[in-house]
Amino acid sequence: MNVRRSAAVLAAVAVLGSAAAPAAFADDAKPSPSTALPSGLYGKTDPKFDGVFRQSYALLAQDAEGVEPAAKAVDWLTGQQCASGGFAAYRADASAPCNSKTTVDSNSTAAAVQALAALGNEKKTVGKSVEWLKSVQNKDGGWGYNPGLPTDANSTGIVVGALVAAGENPADVKSKDGKSAFDALPKLVMDCDKDGGAFGLADPKSGKLSPNADATAAGVLGSLGRGLASVSPKKGEATSPKCAKPDTATQAASNGAGYLLDTLGKSDDHLMSAMPGAKDQPDFGNTADAVLALAAAGQQDQAKKSAEWLAKNSADWAKQSGPAAYAQLVFAANAAGMDARDFGGADLVKQLNATGPAPQSASKSPSASASDEKKDDGGGVSIWWIIGVGMVAGIGIGFLYSGNRKKQQP
């Protein structure tokens, strides 16, 4: 989910101050000349805000396509884990122990769990991360971006995916108050008549929820207990979702799916950016998220229409944004029943492989090896893509501005 992109950015705004923000948040932000990127890391742009996230997405998408990642790519990701089991967005010196200043977060941790669980050889690492996620579960059963922040749909959705990937039943993972994610997510669904049954995004200052397509996509996926790479096309005729009081997670997912169907139907099968200053700009990442959510909800016709729109229009975005974007498109292609190796004429797997170390094998297509490919300049998620998700922590972001956020766990 677009997540995952990232409350850490808004935290940096508070820390760096507005004067420093433009340089720090440039779309093509490059690491400083004195900072060499790890050879096992996917992407070339500064990994400060999305290193673990983009690496996890890359490895998960490769696994979904039968590609065996480079050992050093997996080692880099496992090496980012703190002793507590949590992951931060990026640790430049992974040999140094995590401490109270290490801002571990639920999104980076959950993304890493989904990737490492899929690879199958990192049970100890996965187990520690799952226990950390359980330890920072909110009383209402959900998760915020950082420990201590209020529950949001994006964070809760990606954690649900991680629990499922690790073999856990999310309904059985309960807070001290006996609440699970399936109790928390329906509380984030908005009014049917006024807001179309969307999952809400909280305003950083007031805490007031407003309808949000990406929060809705994450909420639908989480409410249905699905992960990023676990959605496959559903056969059969889809029924039209009926919006009703979200007494259950299933109904919450139905309401959210209806909202996405309505929103996509009004905008030529794709979502538009809700970022400040982004006028009439398509949101490729959120559209890919919506494809996953709708496919999981059995709305295959619209999922495929939106995936086909992405196949025709997303090439430039993916090239600029890098490995996480290619991975999102792989997930969307698979969910829509399309070929990720011929997605609008593009081989997404080959392009993804070319953003990092050459994989050990690429069983579905020998030509997908990155060994003879020029490395893509895209490093990760577009920084606006990252900032957009930073807002998903909702009223919790206010904690970052006020300085009242709870002390981070190492």
UniProtKB/TrEMBL annotation:
Biased composition (Low complexity): 357-370
GO MF entry, a single one: catalytic activity
Keywords: Membrane, Repeat, Signal, Transmembrane, Transmembrane helix
Region feature (Disordered): 230-249, 354-377
Keyword Transport among record annotations: no
Residues covered by the Prenyltransferase alpha-alpha toroid domain: 56-201
Entry-linked Pfam families: Prenyltrans
Gene3D superfamilies: 1.50.10.20
The keyword Transport appears for this protein: no
Leader peptide range in chain numbering: 1-26
Residue spans crossing the bilayer: 383-401
SUPFAM superfamilies: Terpenoid cyclases/Protein prenyltransferases
Name recorded for this polypeptide: Prenyltransferase alpha-alpha toroid domain-containing protein
Organism: Streptomyces kanamyceticus
